[in-house]
Amino acid sequence: MIEFGQPLAFLGGLAVSLPIVAHMAYRRVSEKRLFPSLRFLTPTSIPRSGKKRPSDWRLLLLRVLLFVVLVMILADPYWSDEKGKASAQTNREKRIHLVDCSISMSGWGGWSQVQGELFNQWKDDRADHGMIAHGVDGLKVWKTGTPIDELKKGLNLLQPIHTQHQPQALLNRLKKLWREENGPKKVFVYSDFQVSDWQSVQADVIGLGAELVFVPVGHNNGPWLTRRGNQAVVDARVVPGGSGKVRVWAVVRNWDANATPVSLSIFAGGERRERIDLVLPPLGSEQAQFNLPAEDFASASIILDDNDSCSWDNNRSLWVSPPPARGFAFLTRSPMRLSDQAEKEFLQAVMESVGDGVWNRWAEVSDGAQFDCLLIPGFSDWSNKETNSLLIDHLQGGGTALLTPGESYVGMNQLLRESKLLDFTFNRLLQTELRLDPYRIDVLDDQNPLSQVFAGDSVRDLYLTQVRRFLSLRDWDDSLECPLYDREGRPLALVRKFPGGGRLVFLCFRLLPDWTDLPTRNSFLPLMVELCGLTSDELLDTGRLTLQSGESIVSSENSFNAINPGLYQYQGKKISVHAPLAESLPEVMTENEMQEVLNGSRSKMQPVDTELSDDLPDHSSDQPLWMWFALAAALLLIGETILSVHSRLSTHV
Amino acid sequence: MLVEETDNSLLDPTRLCRIDDLYLLAKIVTSGVRSGMHSSMRQGRGNEFFQYRTYEPGEDLKNVDWRVFAKRNELVSKTYQEDTNLNVLMVVDASASMSYAGKNAVCSKFRYLQMLSACIAYLAIRQGDRVGLFGGSEDAVDWVRPLGGRAALNRLLVKIGSMKPAGRDIGMQAWTRFNAVLPRDSIVVVLSDFLDGEDEWKRRLQFAASGRYECICMQILDDDELVLPDSDALRFVELEGNGEVSASPELIRKDYQIKMEQYLKGLQNIILHAGADYQLLKTDQEFGHALRRFLGLRAHS
């Protein structure tokens, strides 16, 4: 049956009289008639009076119908399915309960409140209940109509999980679940409405035809007010702490408006190793540092001895053992000369300084141990087949090697060419006696990979480097890179890259004070790092990873899902997982903000113990008809146009 | 009376306007008009056999058809169509105003003119006259020299059928030329609506004053032109110009009729004073009357 949402619009039905009046008052002044002669015609005024009877019934009928249809469109017509409505009225109300299972719900007494509220709701057997919540292994859905016992069982299995709440997923599932549901519906949202969880959510629950009820829980400072009193260990890191020691550094955050005394302890090897008393400033942070023996403990836990409202963020575990360093080794003549020794010390200092900002990443290895970088100061004809094959195997296995020239330049050149490591022609040894006019490194062009590192102020130190002696080379192989050259364009370093990732760096000068002042310059370390490629991702991989709950590592074989905070090992990596910091924040959304987020401005806020409302009109089974009426109006308009044009044309003949 | 014996259904323009072939149309019309008109035919000495008739005592026996007598034992005389030197000139108005057809009219004024002129031409040819045509509009004046015989009739009918009403009436210059070339001993039939230039008609018809010419002016009008169309208000647009007049026919009908009546009377006087006959024809009027007027006129000549 057709019903109208705006019956008052039928007052507009008076407009139907308009086409009738217009039709009767039509004077036909525009009716044109070709006539043989006008000589006997006298112009007259056109009679003002309209016609007593309409002449074009079809046109008049169309116009009246057009106005009737327009009025009906304004009256918001819809098809009221009485059967559907009757069945809908007999349907029970459907209630879905969206439960926030984020870890923040475990604080401020939120989870126990949720359980209490839900059990109260389920006592009302006049409605069908359902529930959607996040479980450990994904979204859990109990459709409306699920027996209360099953819901209770499901609720008992649920618990706050250490991931950040994703209410958008709950709402999306709700939309999918209720897309074709009819009858009265209500959505109950049980959450602490933490800002970090809800601020980016966008949903139209009202659009589903459902009534929205917010159930704020865990608001210990009053409903919809920022919560009080939480302290948390928000960060913890381990750094080198001198010889044989590591330093554990922790940050504690206070979200209380008052200064709060706390004590922070470090547990390692199952015992409390150290305890520090702190007074946390109001709404501020405090740092604490603990020292542990470097090799004694693999892991440690920082625990905040505090009785705050939210205990899950009071501890943090971390791996404390230093990450394993990459090895480098020297290959020198035996016995070493003083010049070799001096050069070795310079190179050793550089290699041990290469790090990731915290840990030194390179360490000299003893004989027979695995190494990634081979350093050969004063490479010359002292080298034999054994050392040559060692060098070649190392390079072909993906290793890095650095050579500086020895005394016998011709012998060195011959050896390198014979072993097919480097192909160039030794020209002569260039040296300047004038200390004020040394050889300088030329400006790096844009194509040079070093130009990306040495830019701005840092490049000045490199360009001021004095080179007083260096080997002048010529006819070097085109496959060799020449990243460094003097201002005359003569190479100062050659690099050869091997297919397996190996890299051979040949410096045309020795790293000795009478050759160059490079080892004493700030640019020495970055230059060596870049020339030898010591900062590649593979070489810098510490095997340590820090994840937040909810994140995962996906590999081709299997994956690692970080859920509970703690320490894990996965595929040789040491992983520390901690709960998201956002869950510790006490700020909550306001009621109005939540209304906006869920289109709640149209919803009616009700107390939690809301009763079934039978007096609300139910339009869920109504089908809007305005589109059909608009279509009819368009057809009538077309018909009216055709008829009126036809009528006008016929009068012109 | 001749009129009483006529089959008027054959002369009704309502039926005839459906016939496109003017020759056929003319034949049908004249067969209805000619019945009982034998005495008006010029029968006498001539080469073309016309018909048989009952022998009357005292008549020249040379006319008796003896073969018929031998077969049927009845004396019949052969009559021959007399060769004449009479020319019939039709002056046809093909101006734009002739294209008018009222809402209730069976055809336009020009279509009526075409049918009537075809009938006249047919009748004239059947009576041994030569038929010619002068007419058209100001832009295109046609002149067909009077000729006799079936072929001339066909050419004339094709010409009449191909004319389209457009433009203004024939100008005075053309009329002067027409007066100059008009053959002697002619019957001139002017077919027009005579709606403008009534003062000029005296000059145009000056040949009618001569005893060598007979002239009849047949004014063809639509009923709307006499009484105005039925409508509350109309915007009248002139067919032969751009003039417009908005008027309510209801309000001006009486005045219009008076003016039209006065005009027709004045026109009739002018035509009669010029020495021509006048006949008003409406487009819904059957052709019998007009043709009889033509035949009556011919009988005088």
Describe this structure in words.
The complex is a heterodimer of chains A (653) and B (301). By secondary structure, chain A is α/β, with parallel strands linked by helices. Chain A folds into four domains: 2-37 and 45-81 and 622-652, no CATH class; 94-226 and 587-602, Rossmann fold, CATH 3.40.50; 231-319, Immunoglobulins (Immunoglobulin-like, Sandwich), CATH 2.60.40.10; 326-540, 3-Layer(aba) Sandwich (Rossmann fold), CATH 3.40.50.880. Chain A has 15 helices and 32 strands. In chain A, the strands form nine sheets. Chain A has a seven-stranded mixed β-sheet with strand order 17-16-18-19-26-25-24, sandwiched between helices. In chain A, helix 2 runs antiparallel to helix 15 (626-652). The longest helix of chain A has 27 residues, at 626-652. Chain A is flat and about 130 Å long. The two termini of chain A are 48 Å apart. With 301 residues, chain B is of the alpha/beta class. In chain B, the strands form three sheets. A six-stranded mixed β-sheet of chain B has the order 6-5-4-7-8-11. Chain B has a three-stranded antiparallel β-sheet with strand order 1-3-2, with helices on one face. In chain B, strands 9-10 form a two-stranded antiparallel ribbon. In chain B, strand 7, helix 7 (201-204) and strand 8 form a beta-alpha-beta unit. The chains are: A alpha/beta (653), B alpha/beta (301). Chains A and B meet through strand 2 of A and strand 9, strand 10 and helix 9 of B. Strand 2 (32-35) of chain A pairs parallel with strand 9 (234-238) of chain B, so a sheet runs across the interface.
